Amino acid sequence: MKKILIYLFSNLTYTRLLHSIQVANFAEIIAYNNNVDTSKAYLAGILHDCAKCMSNSQLINFQKTYKFKKFNKCTNLLHSFVGSIIAKDKLEIQDQDVLNSIKYHTQGRKNMSVCEKIIFVSDYIAHKQNKGEIIKLLTSATHNLNITFFNVLMNKIQYILKKHIYLFPQIVDTWNWYIENNKYNKNC
Ligand SMILES: [Fe+2]
Ligand SMILES: [Fe+2]
What we know:
Elements: H1 2-11, H2 14-33, H3 38-47, H4 56-66, H5 78-90, H6 96-103, H7 114-126, H8 131-143, H9 145-163, H10 169-180
The structure holds fe (ii) ion (2 copies).
């Protein structure tokens, strides 16, 4: 953990660091109530934005070096893919679930693991400013993570549509997969 904290303190702004700690704390609480290893959820939470403060050119260099898909219209989304590479190659994280939780924290994907959903939801909650709303969402996620995840996914898409900004195909694929497989209900 020392190596990770040194990396985060050196590469994130103070605000981003506080956000990451908040996501980790929320993830730990939700994990505890969903029978997920709390230290794994904390680790994924604290690392989820480890590439967020990199410049666009640094992120694009990573994309070219590692040859993953292009994000022409959404370069800010590169940070989740680059973050999982940094976590693996630089910070020596081997747990694939942690790496996937970082990689898919913005757009989701089909058939997400419980830890992936926890980070997706915790990140969303940490961006809320209203204490009452935070408590409501945290309570909801601890009692029914799947329904909360689906509501967060829906709210994220609605926000993008209202703002008239580019809707990245991967979040559409995530949405369609959960709709097609009826995975938004209690029994999934
Ligand atoms: Fe992020
Ligand atoms: Fe974040």
